[in-house]
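Sequence in, structure out. Go.
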Amino acid sequence: MPYPQWANCHLPFGIFSVTKSPRINPPGPVSVLPRRDKTGYARIEFLPMTAAHATWWHQNVQSIINTKYRALSDSTPKNAHKKVRTDIDWDWELWHWLLSVHNFGHASAIKSPAMGLTLAAINEEGFAVPIGMMTLVPRYLCNSDKIGEKTYLWFLASAPSTTYDDWLDGKALDGVGSALIDAAIQESYKVKADGAVLLHADPDGGQYLLDTYKGLGFTSLGSSFGPITLFRWRNRSQYMLLGAKEARKIIRDNEVYRNRT
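Output:
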């Protein structure tokens, strides 16, 4: 997802009526994830993102991403051997600060403020190690498959393997992306929305990023519906939607990892 256009406002579509979504109770957070080496499960927690989380990520994770990975557009010989990541040079301290800016500048934030979540794995010393970061707006009035309210996933990132090597004894976890999307769906349910999630896939992620989201059930939106809002109209082909039905499938698929210790 590209640099946040926090000026995006719900008002352009305010003249349209919105059908109230059926109430779905959040089933509870994913609390364990399987270790990639098949040795069992690791305990995880979803925490409200704090400035301290953003700073820790910037110092301990983002610095590694910026050094050991490359952007898709970077084809220089010195970096050609590096793997591609979308989030090169992202600034989670800025992303966290922009949550407050969004909530101050949007009347809609009174009922549905933008928020951040940190996904942390608990290491053997009991320290909560951030392995995923996400900002979102639980109810976002926009034009996607139709005009209505969706949960807008603003920024999302998961930690690289080095984070597991440095902080979690090299025990990488599977299912981090699905767990993050699961948490976004539950925030949708908490505000009485239907679980549908809208996001913009950063073009720097290339086809791999699009395929990753498609594997989770997202579909790419074409240009036939026009702009998402009056401010979000460019790169329409990169917007992707997880429908309410597909959201329920993610919730079901993660049931085995939920409410466990």
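Check: The two ends are 33 Å apart (CA to CA). The CA atoms of residues 40 and 180 lie 20 Å apart.
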